[in-house]
Every structure is written in C-alpha cells, then in structure tokens.
Amino acid sequence: xxxxxxxxxxxxxxxxxxxxxxxxxxxxxxxxxxxxxxxxxxxxxxxxxxxxxxxxxxxxxxxxxxxxxxxxxxxxxxxxxxxxxxxxxxxxxxxxxxxxxxxxxxxxxxxxxxxxxxxxxxxxxxxxxxxxxxxxxxxxxxxxxxxxxxxxxxxxxxxxxxxxxxxxxxxxxxxxxxxxxxxxxxxxxxxxxxxxxxxxxxxxxxxxxxxxxxxxxxxxxxxxxxxxxxxxxxxxxxxxxxxxxxxxxxxxxxxxxxxxxxxxxxxxxxxxxxxxxxxxxxxxxxxxxxxxxxxxxxxxxxxxxxxxxxxxxxxxxxxxxxxx
Length: 324
Known about the structure:
The protein is of the alpha/beta class. Helices cover 42% and strands 16% of the residues. Strands 1-11-10-9-2-5-6 form a 7-stranded mixed β-sheet, sandwiched between helices. A two-stranded antiparallel ribbon has the order 3-4. Strands 7-8 form a two-stranded antiparallel sheet. It starts with 12 loop residues before the first helix and ends with a helix.
C-alpha cells in the first residue's frame, strides 16, 4: 500500500496561519501601477489587511491639502497652492505679487532640497511663511472676495476626489486635514467642489478678519511644512476627539507630513502614502525610505481610494467602481 504524505500537515502552525493569511487577502491591483513604489510591499499589504479586519470604525484619515488633495499640475501647467490663489489682482497689488514670486523662488528650492535635514530647513520655512503672511496682511484682503478668487483660480482637487470624500463621509470616517496653507481658502476650495462633509476637521492657518471683514492677522500658531509635529502635539485635544480609531491612513507630499499623526493616541496601524510631484529622481530615494507607498507624478486619488475600498464594506467597493 502506498502512503501519500500531505505536506501541510507537518507545517508549523505559524506557517499555516501565514499561508491562510495570504490566501484570504484580497490583492490590491492598483498597487501594481507603474507610478507606485514601495520599500516593503508585504508590510503594506499586511497593514491594509489589519485595517480591513478592524473595519472603518477603527479608521481615521490624516491628510495634507496643497499638492496632496489638490493637483500639482494639469496639462503640463503648475497649479496654485492656497497661498498662490490669493495672488490675485483683486486682492493684492503688483508689487506684492512680485515679492511673493521672489520668496517662492528663494525658499521653495530649500523646502524640497533632499540634502538638507528638516532641522536645517526649519528657520527658512518660518521666514518664508511669516513674510508671505505679512504681505497678505498689508494688502487688507477682504473676506467677501475669497469665494470669487477661488472660483477664478485654476486650483483642482485630484481626480477621484469625490469618491474619496464621499466614501469617508458615508462611513463616518474622520478626515483631518492638516495644512500649512490658508485655511479660509482651503475650506472654500472644498466647499465649491461640494465635498465639505460633517466628518471633516481642519488644522491650518486661519485668517483673522476685523469687524469690517478686512484681514488684520493670522490666528494662533504658524503652521508651515516642517513643524507639523509640533502642531499635531499642540492640537492633541482635537486629535483626542478621534479616540478609539487607532488605524491611520496618512497622505502627504512632503517629508514634513510624516509627523502629522504624532498626536494620535494609542495608534496601532499607520499607513503613509507620499505624493512625489516634483524633482522625482532627486528625491525618490528619500521618499521611498520614508513613506510606505510613494506615488510618482500621480495626479489621481486612485491609490487612496483603492485602500479605502479594501477597508470598508464590499458593497461600498462595488459602489465606488460604479462611480468611476
């Protein structure tokens, strides 16, 4: 009589569980796109699987805004940040426009320079943001003009934004936008795209208008691209409102964005997605070594939406496909 050996019977329990884990995981085909890079794909898939098991009630999303939820470029043309949107003749004069451009040309190369550490960039970022805000205050910008300049701007949310915002709102997943931009402009962009839902929380640079509706200052602590860790910790009260949601999907376009979840208590799984929009070859290595997923010149929300589909219910996944 011939005896047949079944190999898996002799396999250690841990290995069997690992095999079962792999067999039951749903592959995220979007992660095979040419624009996607990952240092450890298995870790990314395991993290998403853990988030999937915990479900949307355990999830929160923390995201940057400018060049993360908004597009970096469209048809070869660079699109504006929330600060750039204010660079409108309805709001500021020609001299201030020239000065803002000079500041951009001086400090943006420093902001994205891969050879400088965040600590080395810090004083330059403080100077840049402070000088821009002072210029805007000098122009006595009127609050009632913001909606018009946003409407006239070329700013665009990334392709697939409605699926992203609506999916989070439908499943009551909090979306915390942590932005170094101008909060009042940011809110107007979201509002004009009809995705300003109740699950949205914003930490950013809010304008302070006087009783006549004229800009007189900026409120609270200055938030720039390399002090978001300090901002996250100082806004711990706001973040504690999200208690009981230990899984975090973090989206950003700067290495400074990686600290946005530092105020989250008892975090279990944090998955970071970095949009690498500019000077890709120079910065690719540092991004791959820092973010779990790096998206190269990808102007869509395809990857965040795919991740969400695998965390929320199957019926939501089919609904997302239909919306596409």
